Amino acid sequence: MILSVSQLTKNFGGLRAVNKVDLAIAPATIHSIIGPNGAGKTTLFNLITGSIKPVDGSVRFRDRDITGWSPQRLAKLGVARTFQRTSIYARLDVLENVALAIRSREGMTTSVWQPASAERRVRDEATDILAKVGLRGREAVLAGNLAHGYQRSLDIAIGLALNPALILMDEPLAGMSRGDRETVASLITMLRDTLGLTVVVVEHDVGMVMRLSDRITVMQHGTVIADAPPAEIRGNEAVRNAYLHGNFAQ
Amino acid sequence: MREQLTADAGVIAGQPPRRGKAILVIAAVAAVGAVFPFLLAGEPFLLMLASYALTAAIVALSLDLLTGNTGLLSFGHAAWYGFGAYAAGLLSKTVTSDIVLLVLMTMLATAVIATLIGAVLVRQIGKTFAILTLAFSQIIFAIVFVFSGLTGGEDGLQGIPVPTFFGLQVFKPEVWFWIFYGVLVISLAFALHVRRSPLGKAWLAIRDNAERASFIGMNVNRLKLIAYSSSATLAAVAGALFVLFNGAASPDLLSWFESGKILMYVVLGGVGTLVGPILGAIAFTVAEHYVSSFTDAWLIYFGGLFVLMVIVAPGGIFGALSGIWTRGAASREAAQ
Ligand SMILES: Nc1ncnc2c1ncn2[C@@H]1O[C@H](COP(=O)(O)OP(=O)(O)OP(=O)(O)O)[C@@H](O)[C@H]1O
Ligand SMILES: [Mg+2]
């Protein structure tokens, strides 16, 4: 397992947002986490990636205990994430958004003298990554001026620029047009198949989740109510009940 | 401030500067500085005023290194200006009269102390940071009075000897002008260079979205600390040069009033533009001199002008000038 979460717990006041969650993610797989609004999916991501600290439980990445590690340390270790509320550098251009992550990965962030050739390599790599997420030709646009769907893609591009072994994506398809959803979905598959990346996805588009995932974890009220391959999840009674409106197993 | 960062981003996206143009700019800047004192040949007082204005410009630039690059607001920047002045003044009375050594020693002392203090400050965010900078500057202010035997207390630090450069006394007004001008130009050139470097871009990133910056592995506090220490060190250089030029230091140099003025230079000139705060400081210092000789209520007029500027030209002098320039260029294009 590349990531194992055990008995992870977080309270907000009296609310158990994440309650004794166990999770095992196999390397080079696409593992989705689904569940109704408020189930605790984003909180789980926040606990794993160091935005907030758990009250109990542990997180292991490749046999290393990373519980409570800062986002900064995790980024260096190869754990990247994207955000449900898009998190980009709105006032910088698209290319620079990605270049910053590449420079950070390469340990160049505090350098003041940088050879032009190094900067050219950074920009070339950033251009390649942007092309992969469907942002070719938009390198010079101010990130804040991008259409919403493109901003979501840029958020993913920033994460990918870290060359992570594991990337956690919080609702990567939200607010995207059908065409862009397909682009990002095939990107996610490509990341697993050609780069051997492990992708953990939180997503409400259940049809897409069924198609993409190797395994699915279903959360409700902070706990895991099912954890199985897509075919089994489809027939799971508890999961059906969690999704009251029944639009789930189409 | 929002619009300004957009302009910065344009710099990042832009082409590398053309060498020929750069040489032209350097030649022009050097020529202006070389000739300036001779234009004021019969006016020793005006030349002195010019030197004071340049000192203010260096301090303003130093604050913009912090505020413009990282968005951190300092209400107590005069503490470092005053610290530099007292440090250099005391060193010149006890250790050496060599101006280069004095400035280097002051820089070293400031860098060390500012890094220690900054390490605590940069952990605070937003308003807390700003308030702590004010509190810290008041502590430094108080220290001057506690050790009044050493610092001269309320009377200030007096009797600072004329500094030397390789044994030659530095006292001619035009030489001082060139020193201030040279330090300002070199600092500005370096600041503009850093702005285009990975460090400068990382600063823009933490100013825009610090959370995202930490998730791509940036050490946000360390980046802020680098900005804080370099900013303090440049302010101290200005203070050191000022005290050696002036021959005395008064505790007013590190008062909250002085800090407020420095902040005004930056806002007046245009936060984050580096050049703007320099223009703001020069305009403010020159205007202060003339207006305060007419009326004691000059501060009221300045306050009013300041409020007006923030409302009508939130981008400061630099923002207004570049707006006119852009519109001019657009209408020239339309005319063709
Ligand atoms: N910082 C916080 N302070 C207090 N309560 C919070 C906080 N963050 C989340 N919560 C609460 O914790 C619960 C889980 O929230 P979370 O955002 O993890 O859900 P989610 O599964 O991601 O939902 P969605 O699908 O709507 O994104 C919710 O009830 C939410 O209101
Ligand atoms: Mg969520």
UniProtKB/TrEMBL annotation, chain A:
A Pfam family matched in the record: BCA_ABC_TP_C
UniProt KW keywords: ATP-binding, Nucleotide-binding, Transport
Organism expressing this protein natively: Hoeflea olei
Top-rank lineage group of the source organism: Bacteria
Ranges where the ABC transporter domain occurs: 3-246
One Gene Ontology term, aspect cellular component: plasma membrane
Name by which UniProt lists this protein: ABC transporter ATP-binding protein
ATP-binding in keyword set: yes
Keyword ATP-binding: yes
Molecular functions per Gene Ontology: ATP binding; ATP hydrolysis activity
